[in-house]
Amino acid sequence: MAKKVRKATVLSTQQITPHLQRIVLGSEEFTDLTSDHIGSYVKVLIPKNGVADFNLKTACMRSYTIQNVNKSNGAITLDFVINMHQGPATNWAKAAKVGDELAIAGPGPKKLDNFTHPHYILMGDLTSVNAIKGYIKQLPINAKIDAFIHAPTDADIISLDSTRQVTWLITTTPEVEMANALTTLQHYEQPPIVFMALEAGLVRDLKAALTNTHSIPRGNIVASGYWKKGLNSENYKLERQANKQTA
């Protein structure tokens, strides 16, 4: 992704659901951002003890998907998952106040880059709901979309600003409900393209089901484990770095 680091300021912060904190960030350096960047991700350089860190080498960074871009000033809206996972990003989001300074790097490219296919399967949770929102807006109007998002409560359902149908699965056992969702898929002549961004273990299991049971080539599957059950965000980041070094 682009390594441009931008100074930003918290313009507003609001808890919009039991598990989502919506924070709007503004900056004079956001003037190049447009609605085309909705669904792209940025790296948030989390402040340390209230002090912004602008150094990519030392900062604690987390990826977040752009939920909205203000047309007039380029301000970006990000949704932070709270009250579910522990870590510096969650702690910062819950305590953030208007006027707080931080740094943003990016935006980076969208994970999904094929927008001419006839059929897509989108699978996510609250960490990736805005990526799905961005893709739904960009996919062909005539394409078939099977979209499934799991959330812990009905109160966590948010608008995706689209008329396309999205199935929300309210569950505390997403490994069961998301697997069941795949059984509802109808016959397709051409293997669909899949985007999924979920808990790492669930991504592994669903990817196996898609390839083994539904005969979808691995090249058609764009998958990311945004978090991992049993690990806080910092330890999961360290585990992924270690896996890359030994791969």
UniProtKB/TrEMBL annotation:
<dbReference type="InterPro" id="IPR039374">
    <property type="entry name" value="SIP_fam"/>
</dbReference>
<dbReference type="InterPro" id="IPR013113">
    <property type="entry name" value="SIP_FAD-bd"/>
</dbReference>
<dbReference type="Pfam" id="PF04954">
    <property type="entry name" value="SIP"/>
</dbReference>
<dbReference type="Pfam" id="PF08021">
    <property type="entry name" value="FAD_binding_9"/>
</dbReference>
<dbReference type="InterPro" id="IPR007037">
    <property type="entry name" value="SIP_rossman_dom"/>
</dbReference>
<comment type="similarity">
    <text>Belongs to the SIP oxidoreductase family.</text>
</comment>
<dbReference type="InterPro" id="IPR017927">
    <property type="entry name" value="FAD-bd_FR_type"/>
</dbReference>
<feature type="domain" description="FAD-binding FR-type">
    <location>
        <begin position="3"/>
        <end position="114"/>
    </location>
</feature>
<protein>
    <submittedName>
        <fullName>Siderophore-interacting protein</fullName>
    </submittedName>
</protein>
<dbReference type="InterPro" id="IPR039261">
    <property type="entry name" value="FNR_nucleotide-bd"/>
</dbReference>
<dbReference type="InterPro" id="IPR017938">
    <property type="entry name" value="Riboflavin_synthase-like_b-brl"/>
</dbReference>
